[in-house]
Design a protein that fits this description.
Layout: E1 3-7, H1 11-22, E2 26-30, H2 51-60, H3 64-67, E3 71-72, E4 77-80, E5 86-89, H4 94-105, H5 109-133, H6 146-151, H7 156-167, H8 182-190, E6 193-194, H9 197-210, E7 214-216, E8 221-227, E9 230-236, E10 241-243, E11 246-249, H10 263-271, H11 283-286, E12 288-293, E13 308-311, E14 320-323, E15 328-333, H12 335-339, E16 362-364, H13 375-389
Parallel strand pairs: 1-2, 1-11, 2-7, 4-13, 11-16
Antiparallel strand pairs: 3-6, 4-5, 8-9, 9-10, 12-15, 13-14
Helix pairs in contact: 1-9, 1-13, 2-13, 4-5, 5-8
Bound molecules: flavin-adenine dinucleotide.
Length: 392
């Protein structure tokens, strides 16, 4: 049995703690805030690939669906354009999307979008093993930029939709990889889902505690404590070291940047945010408009209330995304917070720090590490780390 310190009790920390406690390790979660959940407290979030969460639940106890309702978001989205036109996109129905697009933009628009989804299918086949299975993947994304793919679309409103898959991550479509077509592909093929994320947090934390994990809140961690190139614990703000044989760091890796011992400056170099091009400079304030409930935690979202409305501006510039919940208030969120580090270069989205570091016993999980941000990928980072550490 190893003593494992998990830093952060967001989704990555909770999934890591549960999987590792279930493997029989002595797990302590150190969270700087007063409660678990991290970014999941921001309200209803649609997500793809629920299979990743399903896998964790199945391996550690009662199946996911026995613990909470995972419901399809239907329709998947409402796209609103500056000229007043609108399209309501059904969930997980390529044929339904084709019909809706033909109806809104004229015959043939659906076929144009089908070509995007087919591109996403090809990209996913290349990326899937690297995204879902590799501890230190640095995949080379399929060639070209998202703008190249968009340029092949005759319908300008579809070009705007496709490019929004880059701008919502703070990336420039002119440099973002063409392989971002995996996002519409995953949405339309495997569906968009939602759940009461507050309940998800409670179940994960409760199950991890049942398996013996200890939670320490209001406990900000300064950094990992090292002995040469081996981790020996974490340093707390009191100066005390909490001893550990392994550390799973799920706080933003940028927090490691102040470390002067060399190892983490390399992490920083790899995660440093590239300068955005001039026309993307205002992306931080405009990319995401999210409605969150006043109470802090989401009421169990119903499928229609979680349908995001995506509004495309008349000129160039990022789309805004709004979730319509009756009790909500508008909150602007920078892409750094919403989706991990923004990326200006073609490869940056696919080049996050590996889950296994060069420091023995130090692992990175969460939105800032491989394979990236968002509920399924963050949960997958925890699965990769847990599998790497292995059973006690
Ligand atoms: C508004 C918003 C909308 C989103 N929409 C979607 C969506 O529609 N679909 C989707 O799939 N994803 C969405 N996401 C992204 C998704 O929520 C995140 O990628 C995911 O929750 C990140 O989990 P995490 O554990 O990596 O990080 P976090 O949730 O940020 O957890 C990190 C934890 O570490 C703690 N911490 C930080 N520093 C320290 C320290 N020094 N010591 C101890 N603890 C520390 C923090 O308090 C936090 O609890 C959205 C995010 C936001 C904010």
């Amino acid at each position: 049995m190893a003593r494992v310190a998990v830093v952060g009790a967001g989704l990555a920390g909770l999934c890591s703690a549960l999987a590792l406690a279930d493997f029989g390790h002595d797990v302590t979660v150190l969270e700087s805030g007063p409660a678990p959940g991290g970014q999941l407290a921001y309200g209803p979030q649609p997500f793809t690939l629920p299979a990743v969460l399903r896998d964790l639940f199945r391996k550690t106890g009662r199946p996911l669906e026995r613990e909470l309702d995972v419901v399809p978001v239907d329709p998947a989205a409402r796209w609103v354009f500056a000229d007043g036109s609108e399209v309501t996109v059904p969930n997980a129905s390529p044929s339904g999307a084709r019909r809706a697009l033909d109806q809104a933009f004229g015959a043939g628009a659906g076929a144009q979008w089908d070509a995007v989804v087919a591109h996403g299918d090809r990209s996913w086949r290349e990326l899937r093993p690297l995204v879902l299975g590799h501890a230190g993947a640095k995949p080379a994304p399929p060639g070209g930029t998202l703008r190249d793919v968009a340029a092949s679309l005759r319908e300008p409103r579809l070009r705007a939709v496709l490019e929004s898959y880059a701008t919502r991550y703070g990336a420039d479509p002119a440099t973002a990889p063409a392989a971002l077509t995996v996002l519409p592909y995953l949405e339309q093929t495997f569906g968009v889902w939602t759940a009461d994320l507050g309940r998800l947090v409670d179940v994960l934390a409760g199950r991890a505690a049942e398996r013996g994990a200890a939670f320490r809140y209001d406990e900000p961690v300064v950094g990992p404590a090292l002995d040469g190139k081996r981790v020996v614990g974490v340093t707390l703000t009191s100066g005390e070291t909490a001893d550990a044989d392994a550390v799973v760091w799920t706080a933003p890796p940028g927090r490691l940047a102040d470390d002067r011992r060399g190892v983490f400056s390399r992490v920083r170099a790899r995660t440093a945010r590239p300068e955005p091009p001039a026309d993307m400079a205002d992306v931080d304030v405009d990319v995401d408009v999210i409605v969150i409930p006043r109470a802090g935690r989401p009421a169990a979202p119903t499928a229609p209330s979680a349908t995001p409305s995506v509004r495309f501006p008349a000129g160039s510039g990022p789309a805004t995304i709004t979730y319509d919940t009756p009790e909500g208030r508008v909150r602007r969120v920078a892409p750094d917070a919403a989706h991990g580090a923004a990326a200006g270069r073609v490869t940056a989205i696919f080049r996050r720090p590996a889950n296994v570091t060069r420091v023995r016993g130090l692992y990175l999980a969460g939105a800032g590490a491989h394979p990236g941000p968002g509920i399924p990928l963050v949960a997958q980072s925890a699965a990769i780390v847990a599998d790497h550490i292995g059973r006690a």
